[in-house]
Design brief:
The protein is mostly beta strands. The chain has no helices and eleven strands. Strands 2, 4, 5, 6, 9, 10 and 11 form a seven-stranded mixed β-sheet that branches. It has a four-stranded antiparallel β-sheet with strand order 1-3-8-7, with no helix packed on it. The radius of gyration is 13 Å and the shape is globular. The protein starts with a strand and ends with a strand.
């Protein structure tokens, strides 16, 4: 059984930074593309960032480009999201997800193509 556990969320002032981590167990991490999504109160879940199996390809939502960085450590079965210059509109529950699509060779933007999801971690950015 594949399990994803996020950590690193919290309360931060605007302009601050947080680093989210997502540890995966029970699966073959190096064959998954990984992604981060978020959901703000009253809004639909939205794509934030994705990374392919090797870390050689990444993609970001326009709203976070230049501020967020996704990375992975296949030896630790962990994916990270470094979030800098945080804004109040970044507030929400952040979810980690794993995709088996094409064995992780390409980045995956569409949430329906993800197979496994974590429980989420809350990020709150105060103004």
């Amino acid at each position: 059984q594949v399990q994803l556990v996020e950590s690193g969320g919290g309360l931060v002032q605007a302009g601050g930074s947080l680093r989210l981590s997502c540890a995966i167990s029970g699966g073959t991490f190096s064959s998954y593309a990984m992604g981060w999504f978020r959901q703000a109160p009253g809004k639909e879940r939205e794509f934030v960032a994705t990374i392919n199996w090797s870390g050689g390809s990444t993609s970001y939502a326009d709203s976070v480009k230049g501020r967020f960085t996704i990375s992975r450590d296949n030896a630790k079965n962990t994916v990270y999201l470094q979030m800098n210059s945080l804004k109040p509109e970044d507030t929400g529950v952040y979810y980690c997800a794993a995709s088996r699509y094409l064995s992780g060779l390409i980045v995956v933007v569409v949430s329906n193509n993800y197979d496994y999801w974590g429980q989420g971690t809350q990020v709150t950015v105060s103004s």
